[in-house]
Amino acid sequence: MKVVIMAGGYATRLWPITKSKPKPLLPVGERLIIDYILDKVKELDLDVYVSTNRFFARQFEEWAKERGIELIIEDTLTEEEKLGTMGALRYIAEKLGSDDYLVIAGDNIFSFSLRDFLNRYEGKTIIAVYDVGDLKLAKRYGVVLLEGDRVIDFEEKPATPKSTLVSTGLYIFPEDVMELLEDYLREGNRDSPGYFLQWLLKRGVEIKAYKFDDYWYDIGSADSYIEAMKTLMKESYIEEIQISPYAKIIPPVVIKRGAKILGRSIIGPYVYIGEDCVIENSDISDSIIFRGTIIRNSTIWRSIIDERCEIRNLELKKSLVGGHAKIQRGD
């Protein structure tokens, strides 16, 4: 069996933050999204590959070299060109050869052990499922109906969900199912795992479900990104920074090297401050601030601010601010 982490998307729902940086390499606390996944994969002692695109290849190459991970790079540069998950998976299978594949979406953070997931595998397609507990929320995902641990119905992003149990972007496809990818794509079907699972069920292919509790985050929005950080940020990590004696830090926070916390600023809880940021006389909570950003005389809550921005004299709530933006209210 081979393990593939799928990281070839362009994360348009998180633009402008992800226009220049791949979503799996975004920080969650002191680590990256994909590092949480890799920790889980290490339990298995299997060959691991990361699939990405040519646009983000250089950033992944730096990450992969440090961790000894092999990359598979699809030759696309834009959202319009991308292969899609199943097209990318077919390309991966052509390069790596026939085998069973454990496939993991590169923007998923989950609580369960992959060893336990693998132990439930009996040669049939198996998917990890989670109860989101809300029918409105379930509309965003592939909705599953079960009979015991067997999937009897699957509907991708239904207008009227039949349950709140959803597929989470973790699958094991046996070799014989991987061989069906060519037929599926040749028929012109939509290039996503959910529609592939629907197609498999219609052909009478048995699909099992592994149900888990605790937490799961599909980091596709600012809210889910911040909530994942709040779940996983247990302790503070503060590097070499300059901090005013009048400033207050409320843990947990991550503050990277070179940051300056000046004046009567209040930072935290649940804040990530990137390298070389300057925060002066500002209150920041439940937010992610990327490197080189300057914030003065402002209040920031549940917001994500990209690198090298300047924010002055503002109150920002539930905001996404793209890189190099300059926003201020009159002094």
TrEMBL record:
Protein name, as recorded: Sugar-phosphate nucleotidyltransferase
Pfam families registered for this protein in UniProt: GMPPB_C (PF25087), NTP_transferase (PF00483)
Source organism, top-level taxon: Archaea
Domain Mannose-1-phosphate guanyltransferase C-terminal: 249-313
Family: Belongs to the transferase hexapeptide repeat family.
MF annotations from Gene Ontology: transferase activity
Occurrences of domain Nucleotidyl transferase (ranges): 2-234
Keywords, alphabetical: Transferase
InterPro entries: GMPPB_C, Mannose-1P_guanyltransferase, NTP_transferase_dom, Nucleotide-diphossugar_trans
